[in-house]
Amino acid sequence: MNKGRISTRTLTQAGFLTAISIVLTRFISVMVPLAGGLPALRLGFGELPIIMSGLLFGPVVGGITGLIADLIGAWAFPQGPFFPGFTLSSMLWGILPGIYGLYLKRKADKGNPFTFKRIFFIIVACTIPISLIMNTYWLSLMMGKGFLALLPGRLLSDVVKIPLVSYLITLLVKHLRTRVAL
Prior knowledge:
The chain is mainly α.
């Protein structure tokens, strides 16, 4: 593959991850009401395929995966008004792990750069700015509720979700690296 070009194989795999993200976000997630009964917390794993796209294919493909997953999901299966802040967040779910993943691949010895400890660090380093800060801020803007009123429920959900997502990504990346030529 030439530098700067995305191969057909990578494009196809990123497309599958995009489709999986849309299904996980729009159909296999639960909305939980917070702050006066408004649905402010979505429990699901829709960002997992976007994170994997960034880790496996780099920040550019990860960001594009997040962008397309959010735009198609919002257009085809809307769950409220479109808000571009969430599109930015979705892109960052692919870009930040992609940047960290490139760093890990360069720093790692001959072994697997994607150990549970490293994936856990990446998920924490992405969850704090994206989920806890940005998404909570976007929700407070949309709903007219205070940032601090929404934060506790989102913090609790992320504390539970971080180890689960880290474990699932570690398993999936290990499986994909051995089964699929990545």
